[in-house]
Amino acid sequence: MTSTSLEGWQRLAPLALVFLFFRSLQKFIRENLFVFVGAGAGFAFLDWLGPRELVLAGVGVLLVLVGGSVIYFRRFRFRIEDDAVRLRRGVFEKKELRVRFARIQNIQIGQPFYFRPFGLVRFSLETPGASEKEVELPGIRRELAEWMRDRIAERQRTVAGDIPADAATGDGNAAEVYHAATGRLLLHGVASNQVWVLAGVVAYLASQLMNRFSERLDEAEVLVATLERFDNGWLVVVLALVAVLAILIILSAVIAVLRYHGFRLEEAGDRLVARHGLLDEREQTVRREKVTGLMFRQSAVGRLVDCWSLAVRQTRSSDAQEQAERGGFLVPGMAHRDMDIASRLLEGARAPGAIQPISNRFRRVYWQRWFVLLLAVLGVFSFAWYWGHWTSLLAAGMMPLVLLILHLRFRQWGWCRDGEMLWVRQGWLGQRIDGFRLDRVQQVRIVQSIYQRRHGLANLQLVLPQGSVTIPFLPLAAAADLANEAAYIAETALDHRV
């Protein structure tokens, strides 16, 4: 396949309409679910509608989504140029976008199960600073997607000039870096925060249902009377909650296996390639030069079962952690021994060694602040009611819990310098370790409060392409040395690149 055969404007395959419709439906549900359920407004609306009106409203929404997908499909065009891809798209307003191959930092090829029998894939491209995929071509031939992937890699090599343009771009010489077994993927699903997201959604929906239907049950007297028939009625409630949590944990584990089934991370020349997925097979490709840092994450449950995830950081328009997991380059289900793969993903990186703690004055000052705040709240509650009121007891009971949380957070804060690599750890029950080369630092700030100036301490803030990292309560001399070295290394590296 050559670029001359793609000089004209190309259209998507008709089956892309299925993908466009499901994407529109998913977006509609995501944007309107909580608005619909919130404060019982959606249920009140359902009470006002009859079954006939409800069916008509549902059909109307589906027709609008189908119509929008058809219009978008008919207006969508793409063309492959020598050094760029050009798009024309839009429903009510026609837009044209041109993305140069040299700017692309992430290439994704996905194949949903309904594309598989027809040899079609979903091809998408990400550029630095974009909050979402700038180019998405759902419903193109796999041969075309793979040719575009290799063409982009070849063009980037030619522009960079560090690797011959005729170097192999296929995956025949790929070397495996990491492979996740099914058991590790199950642990990843159990240990991920996705369990608590699902639990929050279920609790929110259940509370709205109870608030809505408690009026019909006369303040839930029927439910209470039913529970009173049992000798251990509240034990039944607790067991039901435990059963729901167990179901959510199993569901999260199943989702992780479906999403990351057969996960395999390889290095092919100057590229990192990750392949995974059961219902939706995906291939993600990133050039090593576009990697701006690494982030190891471990939840509280993950610390118990030795389960880590690794996010390969790239330039982002926001510092949201969720974005890295949702659409970024994520390596799931790692054990502690697997952290050594850092050296194969980022030049000069090794698994973080001994972590240097921050000053214990961090714990002392926040203990004092929260202690004074809780005492003030306790005094207000005691004055408004009386000392034995439940609000006063609640405020008094929160005091040791808050102090424990601050202590755990202090214990997690730390940093580790390894040559030109800097690792920063934070968290409290779980932990997050950010690693990056100092030549990637874009801006350095030393910030001091009045208390810190008095005790010779400072907060060091480092601005990176993927966001910002802060090391609080460092000795001022150590913060100044790190800041000066980071600025010097970054400026020297920039001079060499220029």
Overview of this structure, please?
- By secondary structure, the chain is of the alpha+beta class.
- The chain folds into four domains: 169 residues, no CATH class; 78 residues; 153 residues, no CATH class; 50 residues.
- It contains 15 helices and 20 strands.
- The chain has a seven-stranded antiparallel beta sheet with strand order 6-5-4-10-9-8-7. A seven-stranded antiparallel beta sheet has the order 13-12-11-17-16-15-14. The protein has a three-stranded antiparallel beta sheet with strand order 1-2-3.
- A hairpin with a 7-residue loop joins strand 4 and strand 5.
- The two termini are 35 Å apart.
- About 3% of the residues have low confidence.
What is the gist of this entry?
This protein has 498 residues and is α+β, with helices and mostly antiparallel strands.
